[in-house]
Amino acid sequence: MTLMIDIDAGASTAPYEQVRAQIAGQARSGILPVGYKLPTVRGLAQELGLAANTVAKAYRFLETDGVIETRGRNGTFVAAAGDAAAREASNAAQSFAERARRLGLSEKEALAAVREALRAAYAVPE
Length: 126
Known about the structure:
The protein is mainly alpha-helical. The protein has five helices and three strands, in the order H-E-H-H-E-E-H-H. It has two domains: 15-79, Orthogonal Bundle (Arc Repressor Mutant, subunit A), CATH 1.10.10.10; 82-121, no CATH class.
């Protein structure tokens, strides 16, 4: 189990987002198991040829999403993200459903809005 990140300098996706997405994907798929110690921000930045702020930004988003956790001087580790991610998604869905109802949208209209948002969020840049 080794962290493998490939940065595509020509991609339209920002490098921090590439780092974030690849770590999140590896953590969720089990390639990086819960408790796996990630490299330091500076160490990973140097390894990838990126600015430390770029990796720090990716780590901040990953921590906010519950994918990783920082344990002070002990380092940064893959968290048990499944439950946290599912809980956060459920809360977001509940908030959306309540707002859609207040706006007077039908269930069909609300679902169409969600499908369109998901299509946009998961679109692969060409």
